[in-house]
Design brief:
A hairpin with a 4-residue loop joins strand 1 and strand 2. The strands form 7 sheets. Strands 10, 13, 16, 17, 20, 21, 24, 27 and 30 form a 9-stranded mixed beta sheet that branches. A 7-stranded mixed beta sheet has the order 2-1-5-4-3-7-8, with helices on one face. A 4-stranded antiparallel beta sheet has the order 12-18-14-15. The longest helix has 18 residues. It contains 10 helices and 30 strands. Helices cover about 15% and strands about 30% of the residues. By secondary structure, it is an alpha+beta fold.
Length: about 600
């Protein structure tokens, strides 16, 4: 794994909900805002006219469950306090139909918000202003004319969060107006969750939640979007799904949800979570028809899960021995925690699932086994010297192996958890853990072996928008390939695995034409691929180091291999099992 800049831990949906809105020729700038009156979550009224003595007012649209609004909550509180001394008032506006006063109160308490949080009943104010997302900012001058519309700053943008903001557009707009100057940048692109507005279409039609849509949501969403899981909101019932209908349509239409990036022309995978065209059409029809509920008696059985786990109940759990205190801001170096004593016997792992104790600040969790010969090696060398057993990262499923196969952890090994923390603006505490399902030695038919195809000697030129790097590895014995896990950093553009057989044939096993660093996916082959001795596994990656890549930390830099996210990696992880001597499959003939 790599060291990244701050990223929402529940990226499973945080990134999915964020979408940039255009700022060019913004018609909302220059618009005069008439007075309005809203109540806060205590029921107290607040009218715009109540603040006639304020030279500048900032209206910020917020949502209690929007990951980006949660990330910015503490920053907004600090900004509100800073500018209050100069006469500025910041008003938080919540227009989401599903955000109750109780939810707003919990949001305020969680982030110590002391500026007013107002309820925009029926999203009337949002419609008057043209607000569409959270967080979205409108700065009003003394005549209550909009002089700035856009984002708070550029720290958290789609797929490219930074440790600190490079540009503080909201603060710059406030400063300019307080100094009686024109705002230099009156409009900016902004990202955020769609405001869940009141439905204007009367529910109608034969496609209903109970009849068709619940089954689709159960198949594609509920595993992550349920109470106690890692996604930031639940989608397990009609009342939970309807407020997010517009966002669901947007992210499914853009193919950002469900997160799956394999080219469908190559390979079949057991963990393929992509949505079929038929399911998409049904979902869109339901949303367009006003989200009719239908007869609850038609609801399909709800999927069952083990609380706290996606793999089911583990046989053994390894947890950090103590909590780690994550600071509110800054970049936290990787932290390493030895868990449990050295193993007294061989472990045969059939399933591994790493879990963040505090998803708000955990980017990834990796369990390494330091084998007996490395058992006294410092823990911080686990990534270079250890055996990777299980990983949590955005989008990662539990690591499962075919029946009768398992990965061996030798007796005498020491287990180390590597943690990557991403501060979110408030001090947090975390104690993450990893669960394993084990087989008895007598149950193991084949040992799973972990490997990687690596090129560590490349250099990506400055401003190159499609730089190719190729890495190869030859197999010296017959094996079956089980799964693939491509890994690059922010400049990663595409990644392809090919098998070059001894007779010269080449076959694409996995193609990821649109690599996304924010989603770390492993692709589990539905049918293991036979690779005879002498086969080369070829990994071809393309990198975009140009100004056109919004994730690019520095287009002017020549980029080489390194663990930091502003450096790059080309690693094609994989696992195999031994193939019996002389065995062939139809694919190899």
């Amino acid at each position: 794994m790599s060291k990244t800049l701050p990223l929402v831990a529940c990226v499973c949906l945080s990134v999915a909900c964020w979408m940039p809105a255009a700022a060019a020729d913004d018609p909302l700038v220059g618009k005069q805002v008439e007075t309005f009156s809203l109540v806060d979550f205590h029921g107290r009224p607040h009218a715009l006219a109540d603040y006639d003595d304020k030279p500048v007012i900032a209206l910020v649209f917020l949502g209690t469950e929007c990951p980006l609004a949660r990330l910015y909550a503490s920053k907004l509180t600090a900004l509100a306090r800073e500018y209050a001394e100069r006469g500025v008032i910041l008003l938080g506006i919540d227009s989401n139909v599903h955000d109750t006063p109780t939810k707003l109160a919990a949001y305020a308490n969680a982030f110590h918000i002391d500026f007013p949080l107002l309820i925009d009943q029926g999203n009337a104010l949002a419609d008057r202003l043209g607000a569409t997302r959270t967080p979205e900012v409108f700065v009003l001058d003394a005549k209550r004319v909009v002089r700035y519309h856009g984002r708070i700053d550029d720290q958290f943008i789609v797929g490219a969060p930074r440790d600190v903001a490079r540009h503080r557009e909201l603060a710059a707009a406030l400063d300019a107006l307080l100094e009686n100057k024109e705002v230099a940048l009156p409009s900016t692109d902004f990202t955020g969750c769609l405001i869940a507005k009141v439905r204007r279409v009367e529910p109608h039609g034969d496609v209903t939640y109970s009849g068709q849509v619940a089954a689709i949501v159960n198949r594609h969403c509920v595993e992550c979007h349920r109470e106690g899981e890692l996604a930031p909101f639940a989608l397990a019932s009609y009342d939970e799904v309807v407020p997010w209908a517009a966002t669901i349509r947007e992210v499914v239409e853009d193919q950002r949800m469900p997160p799956w990036f394999a080219d469908p022309r190559y390979g079949t995978f057991t963990n393929d979570c992509s949505m079929s065209d038929a399911d998409r059409d049904t979902l869109f029809t339901w949303i367009d028809n006003g989200c009719p509920e239908g007869d609850p008696k038609q609801l399909p059985p709800a999927p069952t899960f083990t609380a706290g786990w996606r793999m089911g109940e583990p046989d053994v759990v390894y947890q950090m021995n103590e909590s780690y205190e994550v600071p509110a801001e800054g970049v936290v170096d990787y932290q390493y925690f030895t868990v449990g004593p050295k193993l007294e016997k061989d472990f045969w792992v059939s399933v591994a699932e790493a879990r963040p104790g505090n998803p708000q600040v955990v980017h990834h969790v990796v369990l390494f086994a330091m084998p007996p010969g490395e058992a006294n090696t410092p823990a911080d060398q686990a990534q270079q010297r250890g055996q990777m057993i299980g990983v949590y990262a955005p989008g990662m499923n539990p690591w499962r192996y075919p029946p009768g196969t398992a990965m061996k952890i030798e007796a005498g090994s020491r287990l180390v958890i590597q943690m990557h923390y991403t501060p979110n603006g408030t001090a947090q505490s975390d104690r993450s853990y990893v669960g394993l399902k084990l087989l008895e030695p007598s149950e193991v038919q084949e040992e799973v072996r972990y490997g990687m195809v690596v090129d560590a000697a490349f250099e990506i030129p400055p401003h190159a928008d499609n730089h190719e790097v190729v890495a190869r590895k030859m197999f010296l014995r017959d094996v079956y390939l089980l799964n693939l896990f491509p890994h690059m950093h922010y400049r990663g553009k595409s990644f392809k695995y090919e098998a070059e057989f001894p007779d010269g044939r080449r076959e694409v096993i996995l193609n990821v034409p649109r690599y996304d660093f924010n989603w770390q996916l492993r692709y589990d082959l539905a049918q293991p691929v036979f690779l005879p001795r002498g086969t080369r596994l070829i990994c071809t990656a393309h990198f975009d180091n140009s100004e056109g890549n919004p994730l690019n930390p520095d287009p002017s830099a020549a980029v080489r291999f390194g663990l930091q996210s502003w450096e790059e990696m080309l690693v094609g992880y994989y696992t195999t099992i031994r193939a019996p001597a002389g065995e062939k499959t139809a694919r190899s003939e």
